[in-house]
């Protein structure tokens, strides 16, 4: 009994000493309070607008109905209040428990990697640009953030990241099991979505979108064009290009996304690069370290971020045999510091609305490109790619990517 009490005290101290867990607790609390307030306001308004004849029913119980004006009002409301509080507390405790267990497991696995980071940063010159990519064993099915050293473009996004994208698409990272989430279509767009829930780490989402009457080049420019993106993505409120490479097209950009009022905004430092093989484009974007942009309390920095896609032409569903449609296979995961259950709920309810905004934005971009000859700087950078050739490998369903000699 004493051992269990000591373990409880240790877990409580670890919770209060962890800024991430405390912030998640505050986010959940702030998220639940507006719902409670809205429920009570609705009850008060409903009671004030009740029909007059109801007063006759409660005339003999006037003295017993005074507790209706307390908080929360009414016995039924009290039960609803307690049930909602218990549900929120259960979700919060579950998230805290999973985070505490995951943290203890990650400490053991990351100790050796941290030693490599320290040795690399101490032995390398101050002006050198280096990066250490921490890759877990594929059998674990886990995704760890990329840790690096100084600022710069060199090795921010490499062939290892491209290989990671292909492994996720093929489901080879720990024999990933995908759960179907959605399958919808419109007159000129088809969308499918899946998710994979690893034992540790954020949920991984995979989607397949087919745009009718679209070219891979236009879709590539659309996803890369940060100047046009705020027109269809209302969450993006700040964009800045930090660095770019005219030889490889690699970029480092700074994003700030606006979250709902009950959550703090999120900040992203994203490295991105495009590989090209035939008519297929492999677009890789991920979170990268960048000490020149210091961390702040708000907006909160998102370190673990990976959002990449493969764009290629496909046959139209019209059945005319023409490659007039474009397929986009997306892999996305990030750790926003929100409990996993809450994040999954938000994604599930907001997915189709986001897809419709994206599709509407693409059609608007398509129309704008027909009228305007000039391209934004981001769209121009999207045309600078690393050329690769695709050869059939021995692994079925998988292609071996070979870099062309003499090309960057």
What does it look like?
With 408 residues, this protein is of the alpha+beta class. Helices cover 39% and strands 24% of the residues. The protein has 8 helices and 14 strands. Strands 3, 4, 5, 6, 7, 8, 9, 10, 11, 12, 13 and 14 form a 12-stranded mixed β-sheet that branches. Strands 1-2 form a two-stranded antiparallel sheet. The termini are far apart. The relative contact order is 0.12. Pfam families: START (PF01852). This is START domain-containing protein. It comes from Sesamum radiatum.
Individual helix count: 8
Give helix and strand order, one letter per element, not per position: HHHHEEHEEEHEEEEEEEHHEE
- What fold name goes in the CATH topology slot of the largest domain? Alpha-D-Glucose-1,6-Bisphosphate, Chain A, domain 4
Task: List how many beta strands DSSP finds.
Answer: 14
**Oligomeric form of this entry?**
single chain
Shape: globular
Beta-strand percentage range: 15-25%
> How far apart lie the N and C ends?
64 Å
The largest pleated sheet is described as: 12 strands, mixed
Gyration radius, rounded: 26 Å
Which spans have pLDDT < 50 for at least 5 consecutive residues?
Answer: 67-75, 105-150, 392-400, 402-408
Query: How many domains make up the 3D coordinates?
Result: 2
* CATH-derived architecture of the largest domain: 2-Layer Sandwich
Percent of residues in helices: 25-40%
Mean pLDDT: 74
The helix-and-strand class reads alpha+beta
Question: What is the CATH first-level class name of the largest domain?
Answer: Alpha Beta
CATH superfamily of the largest domain: START domain
